[in-house]
Amino acid sequence: MFDVIVIGGGVIGGTILRELTKYKLNVCLLEKENDVCMGQSKANSGIVHAGFDAVPGTLKAKFNVLGNRMMPAYAEELGVKFVNNGSLVVAFSDKEMQTLQALKERGEANGVTDMEILSQAELRELEKNISDEAVGALHAKTGGIVCPYGLTIAAIGNAMDNGAKLYTDFEVVSIEKNGEVFSVRSAYGEEVKGKLIIDCAGQGSGKIAELAGDDTVKIGARKGEYILLDRESGDFVSHTLFFTPTEKGKGILVTPTADGNILLGPTSEEQATPCTDTTAQGLAFVIEKVRKMSKNPPLYNTITSFAGVRAYSDRHDFIIEESKKVEGLILCVGIESPGLTSAPAIAKFVVEELVGNKFVLEKNEAFHGRREAEYFFKHLSIEEKNKIIQKDPSYGKIVCRCEQITEGEILRAIRENPPAKNIDAVKRRTRSGMGRCQGGFCQPFVAELIARENGIALEEVTKNGKGSNLVTGVSK
Amino acid sequence: MKMNYDLVIVGGGPAGLAAAIAAYDEGIRDILILERENKLGGILNQCIHNGFGLTRFKESLSGPEYAARFVDGVLARNIQVMTETTVLSLTKDKKVTAINTQNGVFVLQAKAVVLAMGCRERSRGALNVAGSRPAGIYSAGTAQKYVNIKGYMPGKSVVILGSGDIGLIMARRMTLEGAKVHAVCEIMPYSSGLKRNIAQCLDDFDIPLYLNHTITKIEGEKRVTGVVISKVDENKKPIPGTEVHFDCDTVLFSVGLIPENELTKGAGLELSPRTRGAVVYQSRETEVEGIFACGNVLQVHDLVDFVSEEAELAGRYAANYILYGKTERDEVRVSNGKNVSYVVPQIIDKNIQGNVKLFFRVTNTFRDCTIIAKCGEQVLLQKKKKIVVPGEMESMLLTEAKLAEANGEIQIELEEKI
Amino acid sequence: MSVRSLTCIECPIGCSIEVTVENGEPVSVTGNACPRGKLYAENEVICPRRVLTSTVRAENGELIPVKTDKPIKKDETFDLMKKINRVVCKLPVKIGDIIVENITEDINLIATGNAEGV
């Protein structure tokens, strides 16, 4: 019997799970996919927003500003790279310059510090590749970037190291409540019982709430398409560049990622059925806007394009509260942008306030919040590398040549919490296959390591879970 | 551990092997080949089809057989080799940092370095092909590794984008191993592969080649379930209404090769935007003295025979550099003119004795054309060609006497129908 | 009388060849740059042949590249692939070793790669 069952292994579920392990609680995480971080937390812009966007008084405004302040230390503790690169909202007309002034005032109302309006000359000074048409910008110095899946995986891994239990391939099909106890069943007939459910299921959160007996949660889907450029072009821009927002939204952005690539996008397309296909029109739209924002974008250095789906609620604000219909069901739903930024603050609030309402929270003295950095090896000195290789020679073998990832790091990703069970899971943890050849060279080798470590045949190794097998059989 | 070598060769594929042998035969004994795989031979090991070596050995060899001739040459000369060793970085003063399980990370000091890292395939991601991102999407070379080295079938029902040689070879190979190849699509109006590969890999097996077509959508959530191909107009834009759907579980991409020059760039060498390889003299020495480049890391070749030839040049001149040091140069630049996409070498040093063979590619298919080497308005050499295609590397020999006439930049151009 | 157009596969040049055929017999060949092209075109009309390359499984599971030491009848390709796929080869092997003697006609299947078999 668990005290708390968290449903949904994205950044919200992950950070809440970790926060829960700071207390003497028996907790678990249910994830419907073969790995954690398979929904919108893996395919978003990775921006740590300053907080000038949200309407004052909303939950978005509150948690954004709190989360922004927490993020540097939070990421550092989990060994995840955070870069305080600053955001620039770029204006292309005098009218947009006025909007920037309003945005700055809104930011101040939300408690955002360190903002200033830049002239065209000052903007060009900061970004050499900015379009000649850009007339000025709002510079929000507290804006940053973080690897969204790195953060999610690290939070869940750290929670597991502190005692949380993870169930993957656990697609919830029924939730029953008998007295004070929920019993949650998976499509495969597994069952877990718990006293409290936290619904962080993103796109599926409406369905989870409904299964638990609350039919009031209405979730919409909005797709965003992205283009990713090679690290070789990583210095194309240094800040996160936004267009001045219009009634239609924030528009696309041009930003470095925490790992040193350049990310372009996203589009914003309403969807009846969530689908992460990229489209020719979507990608063409991104390119058109990037060309408006910047001079000669190095699109020849494109290494991949992808899409993510953002779940939003009909309130157009975060919903973070106990269900009014089902006691013991806590809703963390409609967490669209700035959800990643807000995650650490939301997690703290949910655990201290909402869970704290239900249980007497007793500190877990054994909690250890630090986690060693992922794919750290490349950045070590020769002496440090050799110390590690001496202990474990597998760190002396490069598997992914583009990102220079060693066998040791891949084995660690396969063995460590949360264990990587497929190719994409290894990729998100180590960056192996994330580079310019997109796994062309390393994939067969990584597949063999996964097969060997799990004692399975290579035919059983998947790209990202059931049905995504890499090969269809042996050739002889 | 020995830390100083006369010559360090990065890569033990066909280029690295030939360079090592040539340097040895020129009198250098202190040579080390660094190879990241567990055996020498490079990509040839997975190219089990035949057709290699016709130019060089006058017989048709499979990839492993061709490689073995050079591996045997290296072993017979007792040239030192470190396999499963990856070079991490290189500096202009020829310090080579490498890593393996036995020695950890180590820094070698070389008197000369030959870069022979080969190339990689362009991936699906680089093309912005729309649709989903399921399992079953491979570059042709990755599929080749699965089938020929690992012994697994990447799929049973295949559509191939790109008619480069590896794509054509894999169309046949997958068919032989029991898969159904529905189509090979090529966005250009011509195939970039060799004509004989169209004949023996596609025609022999009734695999249709769709010229002026590209894949406009990939379908399938977990594993590929199908693709849509469309005809393209002269600007390579898909024409609405021409879509054809294929059910398949696999898509192979054979859409071009890119020299793997990360080490080269890391050492601060400028790359030619045309070849994406280093800028070299006819000796295959780069603009940094003592660093040479050859094979597919310098320019993507069609035939390994020419890789070996180029690597021997690099090996020989690297040996000369080690033995005699830097020499005075008398430079003439070589550039691509009308209808020519690139020329290698980009610089000729007139103080180096001997004729110079220029390698280049044309920008389109031309019939009954003339290739001209010019210096200003002066025609140094011209050569009539019945047909030239972008997919096949062309060459032209400038004799020492002709070179003596050139007192400025040499341009290679193609005149249509004269 | 009919004319067949072929692409020669003997070398990378890939000549476009035309063969005039009468009663199933080649009577003239044009377009070839060398004698091998003529021979290829004539054979292509009478009985097309190809060197078949593939792999066989070795006893330790690794794959050994192989080829037929002479061109086989094109029609027999898939029958031979079935035979090749059933072969389990002993180790070690060296390039040129016969893996299957007379796999068809007087043609042998030979190794094109070396393997120690550790």
Describe this structure in words.
The complex is a heterotrimer of chains A (476), B (418) and C (118). Chain A has 476 residues and is of the alpha+beta class. Chain A has helices at 11-20, 59-77, 94-110, 120-126, 148-161, 205-212, 280-293, 339-355, 382-391, 407-415, 423-430, 443-454; strands spanning 2-7, 27-30, 47-48, 82-83, 87-91, 115-119, 136-140, 144-146, 165-167, 172-178, 181-186, 191-199, 219-229, 240-243, 253-256, 262-265, 269-271, 302-313, 319-322, 329-333, 398-400, 405-406, 473-474. In chain A, α10 (407-415) packs across α11 (423-430) and α10 (407-415) crosses α12. Chain B is an alpha/beta fold. Chain B is built from nine helices and 28 strands. Chain B has helices spanning 14-25, 54-57, 63-76, 140-150, 165-176, 195-202, 262-266, 304-324, 400-405; strands at residues 4-10, 31-34, 50-52, 61-62, 80-82, 86-90, 95-100, 104-115, 119-121, 137-139, 152-153, 157-161, 180-186, 209-211, 213-219, 226-231, 244-247, 250-253, 257-259, 291-293, 331-336, 340-344, 347-349, 356-362, 366-375, 378-388, 394-398, 410-415. In chain B, strands 1, 2, 5, 6, 7, 8 and 20 form a seven-stranded mixed sheet that branches. In chain B, a hairpin with a 4-residue loop joins β6 (86-90) and β7 (95-100). The radius of gyration of chain B is 22 Å and the shape is globular. Chain C has 118 residues and is α+β, with helices and mostly antiparallel strands. Chain C has two helices and ten strands, in the order βββαββββαβββ. Chain C has a five-stranded mixed sheet. Chain C has a three-stranded antiparallel sheet with strand order 1-2-3, with helices on one face. In chain C, strands 4-7 form a two-stranded antiparallel sheet. The interface between A and B is large, with 55 and 54 residues.
Layout: helices, strands, pairs:
The complex is a heterotrimer of chains A (476), B (418) and C (118).
Chain A: E1 2-7, H1 11-20, E2 27-30, E3 47-48, H2 59-77, E4 82-83, E5 87-91, H3 94-110, E6 115-119, H4 120-126, E7 136-140, E8 144-146, H5 148-161, E9 165-167, E10 172-178, E11 181-186, E12 191-199, H6 205-212, E13 219-229, E14 240-243, E15 253-256, E16 262-265, E17 269-271, H7 280-293, E18 302-313, E19 319-322, E20 329-333, H8 339-355, H9 382-391, E21 398-400, E22 405-406, H10 407-415, H11 423-430, H12 443-454, E23 473-474
Parallel strand pairs in A: 1-2, 1-12, 2-9, 5-14, 12-20
Antiparallel strand pairs in A: 3-8, 4-8, 5-7, 6-7, 10-11, 11-12, 13-16, 13-17, 13-18, 14-15, 15-16, 19-20, 21-22
Helix pairs in contact in A: 1-5, 1-8, 2-8, 10-11, 10-12
Chain B: E1 4-10, H1 14-25, E2 31-34, E3 50-52, H2 54-57, E4 61-62, H3 63-76, E5 80-82, E6 86-90, E7 95-100, E8 104-115, E9 119-121, E10 137-139, H4 140-150, E11 152-153, E12 157-161, H5 165-176, E13 180-186, H6 195-202, E14 209-211, E15 213-219, E16 226-231, E17 244-247, E18 250-253, E19 257-259, H7 262-266, E20 291-293, H8 304-324, E21 331-336, E22 340-344, E23 347-349, E24 356-362, E25 366-375, E26 378-388, E27 394-398, H9 400-405, E28 410-415
Helix pairs in contact in B: 1-3, 1-8, 4-5, 5-6
Chain C: E1 2-7, E2 16-22, E3 25-30, H1 35-46, E4 49-50, E5 53-58, E6 63-68, E7 72-73, H2 77-86, E8 88-89, E9 98-104, E10 107-111
Parallel strand pairs in C: 5-8
Antiparallel strand pairs in C: 1-2, 2-3, 4-7, 5-6, 6-10, 9-10
